[in-house]
Amino acid sequence: MSNIPQELQYTKTHEWVRKDEEFFTVGITDHAQTMLGDLVYVELPEIESSFDNGQECAVVESVKAAADIYCPIPGEVIEVNEAVIQNPQLINQDPYGKGWLFRVKPEQSPSELLNAGEYSKVVASEAH
User: Fold this and answer.
1) Fewer CB within 10 Å, N or C, the chain?
2) 13 secondary structure, DSSP code
């Protein structure tokens, strides 16, 4: 079973979101990194770029697949995690910690996010 921290919020496309003061930190879930396998490349959005809810904003690639990352919150990217660009394996090793991807200053409060229980149902439904 995937690690799904209770304090985070999630999307159906396997991004996680954590509210940190005036911004939100975004990454991909443990389930997503497990399904992708060993990550070898990460392309993150430009700082100061703005995205709508659900808009493609980043890409992660593993030895077996590439996956688009969707912005879970409408807003402006204020920071990217340079460490994962240099070492994509950080996402595999610590998806909810050192493997975060980018931070967004929201234009509005996120509305379509799932809690841990709802997200675990999404993961379970994919397993069948």
Assistant:
1) C
2) T
Give 99's strand partners: none
Q: Read off the tokens for 92.
A: 């595999």
Kindly report, residue by residue over 46-80, the tens digit of the pLDDT.
999 999 999 999 999 999 899 999 999 999 999 99
Q: Would you kindly state where each structural domain of the chain is located, as residue ranges?
A: 30-121
Q: How far apart are CA 4 and CA 65, in angstroms?
A: 23
Say if residues 109 and 74 touch (Cβ distance below 8 Å).
no
Place of tokens 């149902």: 121
Q: Which helix (H) or strand (E) segment is 119 a member of?
A: helix 116-127
Collect all residues with Cβ–Cβ distance below 8 Å to 51 and sequence separation of at least 6: 45, 57, 71, 74, 75, 77, 104
Amino acid at site 121: K
pLDDT at 126: 85
User: CATH says 30-121 is which class?
Assistant: mainly beta
Q: What is the CA radius of gyration of the chain?
A: 13
